[in-house]
Specification:
Elements lengths: L18 H9 L7 E2 L17 E6 L6 H9 L1 H6 L3 E6 L3 H10 L4 E4 L1 H10 L5 E10 L1 E5 L14 E4 L5 H12 L14 E4 L5 H6 L5 E5 L2 H7 L3 E5 L10 E8 H6 L1 H20 L1 H16 L5 H9 L1 E3 L5 H14 L14 H9 L14
Parallel strand pairs: 2-3, 2-4, 7-8, 7-9
Antiparallel strand pairs: 1-3, 4-11, 5-11, 5-12, 6-9, 6-10
Helix pairs in contact: 2-10, 2-11, 4-5, 6-13, 8-12, 10-11
Length: 370
């Protein structure tokens, strides 16, 4: 039963035709490198310290990660942690964030489903647990309307995804397979070209004519629309009830075992953040934009922020059934063999908190810890 509505393998070289753009982006702290988040204004000024001095949280500078953007910006996550401080880091895409989780550089991550699935399988179920949801929706296929007017026009074109094996990459490869088209999942070559391109570089590449479109999360999709692209497909239209997990919260199993109180506090803080977003949409949107400005150097214009925000639902329900479906997409795309996902969820802390608030518990689709 769903809770109420309140509730991102390394990438290949992005766009070979634009080495200077890619270099400039990396020089600004973009690319696959993580960005240390300097938001320390909301660190705890007191309160009881939990079992860890700090908790290191990773996320992406995307509107689909607004629970993290706003929760850190407004201090709602820090509030639940008391004297345990949040240290946060922003990543370009999910696979890079997973590498940091596996290396012990972060403890908890806001991340998309495909990298979480891949990491769980590669570590034979020993690397992470999904402990809560964060967001649904916020992904679109946007294209150059002068070159692509219908789906069939995609043949022979260059379409970007953020990184090989990330959630949008898997979704696009699966969609291509359903159309009967052939694309090599590693090189991206085939009936059309899948170009793995940093979200920071993609709008410039599109403007330069090196890309004909992109299957990307917000706000990149709306940035491309502001450059003249048109929405060919909203991924929500491919899912029952127009809901699918785009961002959820994962935790290192080692950290969960050692610091369950800290994990529960982060979950509670994310739940409080989602409720605040739902109750104060305009303030929350402004807060997320302020966080993006801190990370990228400039805020999003209203014409980009508004449509991006409207396409996303923030929810603590991890929408586990859709994760099972997305795992099948990875198999069909040729990026993963049949995955064993039993135990990937530990929703005990989340359901405990939901029950305490008199709200319905959420299901793990039979993939929870025993």
């Amino acid at each position: 039963m769903s809770a109420p509505r309140s509730s991102v393998r390394r990438g290949l070289v992005a766009v070979a035709a634009l080495p200077l753009l890619a270099l400039a982006a990396t020089a600004c702290g973009y690319g696959s490198q993580a960005q240390a988040d300097d938001a320390r204004a909301n660190v705890s000024s007191g309160g009881r310290k939990l079992s860890a001095d700090t908790v290191r949280v990773g996320y992406l500078p995307n509107i689909t990660h607004a629970t993290a953007l706003v929760g850190i910006q407004e201090g709602t996550i820090q509030k639940e942690l008391g004297g345990t401080e949040v240290e946060s880091t922003a990543f370009n895409a999910g696979p890079s964030e997973i590498e940091a989780l596996n290396a012990g550089s972060i403890d908890i991550g806001f991340i998309g489903p495909s990298p979480a699935i891949n990491a769980y399988v590669k570590t034979q179920g020993k690397g992470l647990r999904i402990v809560a949801g964060s967001a649904s929706g916020g992904v679109k296929l946007v294209v150059d309307p002068e070159k692509i007017k219908t789906v069939d026009d995609l043949r022979g074109k260059r379409i970007a995804t953020p990184q090989i094996g990330n959630t949008q990459d898997v979704a696009f490869l699966n969609w291509i397979a359903e159309k009967g088209w052939k694309v090599d999942p590693q090189s991206g070559g085939g009936d059309l070209s899948v170009v793995r391109s940093d979200n920071k570089v993609t709008p410039d590449a599109y403007r330069a004519g090196s890309l004909d479109g992109a299957w990307v999360p917000e706000p990149t999709a709306s940035k491309l629309v502001s450059e003249g692209a048109k929405v060919l497909l909203d991924e929500r239209d491919l899912w029952p009830d127009k809901r699918f997990v785009i961002t959820h919260i994962v935790v290192s199993q080692k950290f969960l075992d050692r610091h369950p109180d800290v994990v529960e506090a982060v979950i509670k803080g994310s739940m409080s953040t989602n409720k605040w977003i739902d109750d104060n949409p305009e303030e929350a949107k402004a807060s997320a934009n302020k966080a993006l400005e801190r990370l990228s150097g400039k805020p999003l214009p209203t014409g980009i922020l508004d449509p991006a925000w409207e396409s996303i639902e923030f929810t603590s329900d991890p929408l586990a059934t859709t994760l099972r479906t997305q795992a099948g997409h990875s198999v069909r795309a040729g990026l993963l063999e049949d995955p064993k996902l039993s135990g990937i969820y530990d929703l005990g802390p989340l359901n405990k908190l939901l029950k305490a608030e008199g709200r319905p518990e959420v299901a793990d689709a039979g993939l929870g810890v025993k």
